[in-house]
Amino acid sequence: MPESPEVEELASFLNERTRGLRVRSFDVMLPKALKSPVAGVEEIVGSTVTGVTRHAKMIDLAMTTDAGAPRHVIVHFGHDGWVLWHDSSPEGRSRVGEATLMARLRFGSDAAPGEGVDLTDAGQWKSLTVHIVPRPDEVPAVAKLGPDPLAGEVDTATFAALLAGRRKQIKALLQDQTALAGIGNAYSDEILHAARVSPVAHAANLTSDEVGRLYAATVQVLSAARDARRGVAPADLKAAKHAALTVHRKAGRACPVCGDEIRTFTFSGAAAQYCATCQTAGESLG
C-alpha cells in the first residue's frame, strides 16, 4: 500500500508537470472506482489544474472548471493502486502490465494531445477510488484524517495525547488514519523496530520513555524515507521503498541491529515483521 513518503513525492512530481494544464479527457474504465456522479467527470474535462497535493496516502488534483468553480479529484489508492505517467498517452484501454487500468486523464488539446495519467490497480479486489468534489473535506476518508506526522502536524505532546488511554495494539494504532495520517503496514513495522517497541503492546501501557522513542522514530523514519524518494520517478517509487526497508517483508533475514532473525506475527488478517531481541525482550509472538 502506498504510504505518505511515496505519495508526497508522487504529488510533487504531478504538481510540477500538470499545474496549469487543461484536462483534455477523463475516462473511467472501471465504473466502481468512481464514487461521485458521472456528471462530475464531465465537469473535469476542460478544467485547468491548479496544483497537486497530498492528504495522508491520497493525492488531490485541484482544478478550476471553465465556469470558475473549484474541483478536486481525490484518488485513494487502496492496497494496490498507483499512478503511471505518460509523456504521450497510449491508446490502449485495458491492462497496464499486470495492473488493471481504472481511469485515465489526458492533458492538452485534441489538436495537440500531451501528457497523461493512468490510475491503475494491480490487486484482486480493485480498491482504488476516485472522488470529484468541490472541497477535499467532502470526501469521508479526508474529513476523518488525524494529524499527519510527515506534514509537521504532530509534536511530542500531541503524540503522547493520541496514545494516552488507548487500549489498542500500537501497530494497529499507528495505521489508524483517524489517529495518525499517512502510515501503513510497512512503515509501522519500520517505526516500531527503530523505537524498540513490540507491535502488540497496548498504547495505554507504554512508558513515557517508549512513547518518546516512538515519536522520535515516527518522525525520523518518515522524514528519511521522504528525503530518499525525492527525484524518484513514480514508476520506481514502490521499488525504491521496498529496497530501503530493513524489517518489513524481511522475515527470515538477520536484524540489521542485533543479528537476530526477523520474525512474522499475524493478527486480524495482517502481518507484522519484528525482531524479538530488539522489540519483545526475546519473546516470540508466534
Automatic annotation (TrEMBL):
It comes from the Bacteria. It catalyses: Hydrolysis of DNA containing ring-opened 7-methylguanine residues, releasing 2,6-diamino-4-hydroxy-5-(N-methyl)formamidopyrimidine. It holds the Pfam family H2TH. Keywords: DNA damage, DNA repair, DNA-binding, Glycosidase, Hydrolase, Lyase, Metal-binding, Multifunctional enzyme, Zinc, Zinc-finger. Residues 2-108 form the Formamidopyrimidine-DNA glycosylase catalytic domain. Residues 246-280 form the FPG-type domain. The keyword 4Fe-4S does not apply. The keyword Disulfide bond does not apply. Belongs to the FPG family. This is Fpg/Nei family DNA glycosylase. It comes from Microbacterium lacus. The lineage of its organism: Bacteria, Bacillati, Actinomycetota, Actinomycetes, Micrococcales.
